[in-house]
Amino acid sequence: MSDNDLTKPDPSPRQLSRTERIGIYGGTFSPVHSGHIRAANCFLDCVGLDRLYMVPTALPPHKAAVDGASDADRLEMLRLAIADDRAGKLEVSDWEISRQGKSYTIYTLEHFTKPERELYMLVGTDMFLTLDKWYRAADIFRLATITLMRRENDRSLDAVIDECRRRYAEDFGARIVVIDRAPFEVSSTELRRRISSGDSLEGLIPDPVAGYIKKNRLYTNSKSRI
Ligand code: ATP
């Protein structure tokens, strides 16, 4: 049957109107750790995403050198970290790293915006509380549902977060989702410190990532930002 065959059944209306839920999870990921992977999986489950792009931010070359890992290393570590993603919904995007020029979040959201797509952007508390000051904040709120996942146990922040939610909804018509799942407490800063002092990384970082760091002697430089 050719593509023009008029006897071919039409796609069902449901297929035609299907909206994809796309998650965007940006960060330095230097290195990616088990806290990031847990956050990504919570984001997938809680929002019911069809696909989640992990988007490492571009670092200026001098910062990458001080940091102890190149852009290529950060990308490769992310690819290794998601390699056993059985549902096949996690993807690493090199878009921010590959594009030239200044990286603003709105450019990334515009890049991923397509008809029949709803964008969800994952943020931590510090980012959430300052979102209205970001470059083209109104457009960020227009293009994406902001998804907050907290990593700190500081309940005194509840009132500040609630106040921000109210203000963003009022001023920008923001759509905001809060993921209420306990985080896995670890940070890249802590991991870089452990690596440079030879401490164990067990359980804190996916094994293939730990292997890559060891093989390529990443973060061992005394200049590493720890
Ligand atoms: P660093 O210690 O160098 O600041 P980091 O561990 O915070 O790094 P980033 O790459 O800066 O890692 O994090 C990217 C995003 O992931 C941020 O929004 C951050 O809040 C979030 N995040 C980092 N660690 C965790 C964690 N353990 N649980 C949940 N979210 C996390």
SSE topology:
Layout: H1 13-17, E1 20-27, H2 34-47, E2 51-56, H3 61-67, H4 71-81, E3 90-92, H5 95-98, H6 105-112, E4 117-123, H7 125-130, H8 137-143, E5 144-149, H9 158-172, E6 176-179, H10 188-196, H11 207-215
Parallel strand pairs: 1-2, 1-4, 2-3, 4-5, 5-6
Adenosine-5'-triphosphate (ATP) is lined by residues 27-29, 35-36, 39, 123-124, 127, 149, 151, 183-189.
What would your notes on this structure say?
The protein is of the alpha/beta class and 226 residues long. The chain has one domain (18-216): HUPs (Rossmann fold, 3-Layer(aba) Sandwich), CATH 3.40.50.620. Helix content is 42%, strand content 15%. The chain has 11 helices and 6 strands. It has helices at 13-17, 34-47, 61-67, 71-81, 95-98, 105-112, 125-130, 137-143, 158-172, 188-196, 207-215, and strands spanning 20-27, 51-56, 90-92, 117-123, 144-149, 176-179. The protein has a 6-stranded parallel beta sheet. β5 (144-149), α9 and β6 (176-179) form a beta-alpha-beta unit. α4 (71-81) packs antiparallel against α11. The longest helix is centred in the C-terminal third of the chain and has 15 residues, at 158-172. The protein is globular and about 50 Å long. The model is unreliable at 1-9, 11-15 and 222-226 (pLDDT under 50). Adenosine-5'-triphosphate is lined by residues 27-29, 35-36, 39, 123-124, 127, 149, 151, 183-189.
